[in-house]
Design goal:
The protein is mostly helical. It has seven helices and no strands. The protein has one domain. The longest helix is centred in the C-terminal third of the chain and has 34 residues. InterPro entries: DUF420.
Length: about 190
């Protein structure tokens, strides 16, 4: 184990917090328009238009990998659990990268109505989706750092399982609500 590995191992919670805050800061900067569109390569309009349905598919796949990861760890198959959760993380990174790219170069998509559906259904679903997505970021960093800095035998004595259950639950609900947001914004209305 090198010095960097030892440092990460000793400071998992602090590093997860720093990485979480930094990641959330990037998201907030994109949402607030701080990141100029000119710093990113310009994709064709068909690609920009394909991002929302692609992200819905990514979300559905992530729900599947989270559920598979839970199933495999309950069966004691650590290797398959690790693969499923690594895949979920990659799917989340792909989702977030595509979402932020579209947000920076295209902007937000306004909900087409301002009535009761917007106020009492769409907006609460969107707020809960975004809140859970933000809340799970430092938790995911935490469980990934725990898993990446310890042998499997030590992970069972750590907070990995307890925090992982919370992170996975938040992820599941956030991904599911993200699909609802997509359906409301691009399909139903």
């Amino acid at each position: 184990m090198g010095m960097a590995d030892g440092f990460v191992r000793r400071h998992v919670a602090g590093l997860a917090a720093v990485l979480g805050v930094a990641s959330i800061a990037v998201v907030v900067a994109a949402v607030r328009g701080v990141i100029p569109a000119g710093v990113l390569p310009q994709a064709p309009a068909w690609f920009i238009g394909a991002i929302p349905p692609l992200n819905a598919v990514i979300s559905a796949a992530a729900i599947g990998t989270i559920l598979a990861g839970w199933r495999w760890i309950r069966r004691g198959d650590v290797a398959k659990h690790r693969a499923a959760m690594a895949t979920t993380t990659l799917l989340f990174v792909a989702f977030l990268g595509l979402y932020l790219y579209r947000l920076v170069v295209h902007g937000t998509t306004a909900f087409p109505t301002t009535g009761a559906v917007y106020t009492f259904v769409y907006l609460p679903v969107l707020i809960i989706h975004m809140g859970l997505a933000i809340a799970c970021i430092p938790l995911v960093y935490y469980v990934l750092l725990l898993a990446g800095t310890r042998p499997v035998s030590e992970i069972y004595d750590s907070n990995h399982a307890r925090v992982g259950r919370v992170a996975a639950s938040l992820w599941l609900v956030s991904f599911a609500l993200g699909i609802v947001v997509y359906l409301m914004l691009y399909v139903l209305y």
